Amino acid sequence: MLTDPLGRTIRYLRISVTDRCNLRCVYCMPPQGIPLSSHDTIMRYEEILEVVKVAAEQGITAIRLTGGEPLARMGITELVRMIASVPGIHDISMTTNGLLLERFAQELKEAGLKRINISLDTLKPDRFSRITRGGSFEQVWRGILAAEKAGLNPIKLNTVVMRGVNDDELSDLASLTLEHPWHVRFIEMMPVNNQEAWDDGFPPINQIFVALSEIKQRLAVLNLKPVQEKSGNGPARVFSIEGGQGKIGFISPISEHFCGECNRLRLTADGNLRPCLLSDLEIPLLPALRKGEDILPLLQQAVQLKPEGHTLQQNQRTFTRCMIQIGG
Ligand code: SAM
Ligand code: SF4
How far, in Å, CA of 292 to CA of 75, rounded? Predict the structure, then answer.
């Protein structure tokens, strides 16, 4: 078992399979993009599989594939299939922008993907295009419907809440759960390496953050009822609208962080284990993997070094990577 010095048992590994993306969301990466890793520094599928096998032997049961955009990496369905065959892995999920989901949903499901999280910050096509710097809302919407048709369940929609950008749509987004059995989750924006001014027309960066308490206050008109269940591996707190089919969750890494319950490790596309999303501490796995060395001691080291919690409240923002390079 992978248990850290604070008694937190690690059951969940989030794997970024690429640092490339077919969108350029304003909160996730700078307009000019990021320097891309060369192909030989990105983990090959067999290397990812090796990490999953070692992790599964140590009690990890859940894998989430993320990116960059996981569906933009060639052969991603094959990776899902490979991971699904690892004994001990009971839950494979993915976080995607949904652009390519219409094409991939069915085969992902057949390969063993169980559920999916799709990023959706707005229901307005022109706004969607501005936030994602060119993405098509309609294409993502078709992707969501395709995921539902394929039987991926649950479907979770992730909304990063931004003042002056999409905070007038919280109620509309939450109300999707009236007609659809989807989970809509509101996420506080994290100040990773995204603190430079965004594109023209966006508010100043220091005005964009909206705390969970305000998000909830704005949703009070919907009279949300708490749902008594633990939701997956995540820290979202879950509610529903009376008579609705879906659920509404809140992820508040900043104002009410959940570090005490954190059960996860992250693996970057270039093969670094990250014990905490919001700490720059990383343990490189790739050199050991490529030399054929045992990586278990490195996994154990990452767990031992897992910080007690992040330090964003103290305004420590020494982040070397953007979210696209970590995977969220
Ligand atoms: N491309 C995929 C997607 O967009 O879903 C997966 C990678 S993306 C980095 C994973 C998640 O991180 C997305 O839900 C995205 O909205 C979220 N994210 C990116 N930057 C963020 C930020 N600064 N604060 C909070 N969430 C962020
Ligand atoms: Fe790409 Fe996802 Fe980041 Fe948007 S949030 S730029 S879709 S990685």
Answer: 24
CB 100 near ligand 1, within 6 Å: no
Q: Whose CA is nearest to atom 25 of ligand 1?
A: 189
Q: Where are the alpha helices (DSSP H) in 208-285?
A: 212-218
**Do residues 109 and 150 make contact, with C-beta atoms less than 8 angstroms apart?**
yes
The pLDDT tens digits for 205-259 are 889 999 999 999 999 999 999 997 665 566 568 999 999 999 999 998 777 777 8
pTM: 0.94
Pick from 240, 231, 230, 139: nearest CA to 181: 240
Top CATH class, 12-326: alpha beta
| Spatial separation of the C-alpha atoms in residues 261 and 198, rounded to whole Å | 33
Query: Is residue 189 lining ligand 2, measured as CB closer than 6 Å?
Result: no
Name the residue with the closest Cα to ligand 1, atom 13. 119
Helix ranges (H only) for the chain are 45-57, 76-84, 101-111, 125-131, 137-150, 170-174, 176-179, 212-218, 286-290, 296-304, 323-326
| CB 13 within 8 Å of CB 48 | no
What is the atom index within ligand 1 of the atom nearest the CA of 66?
6
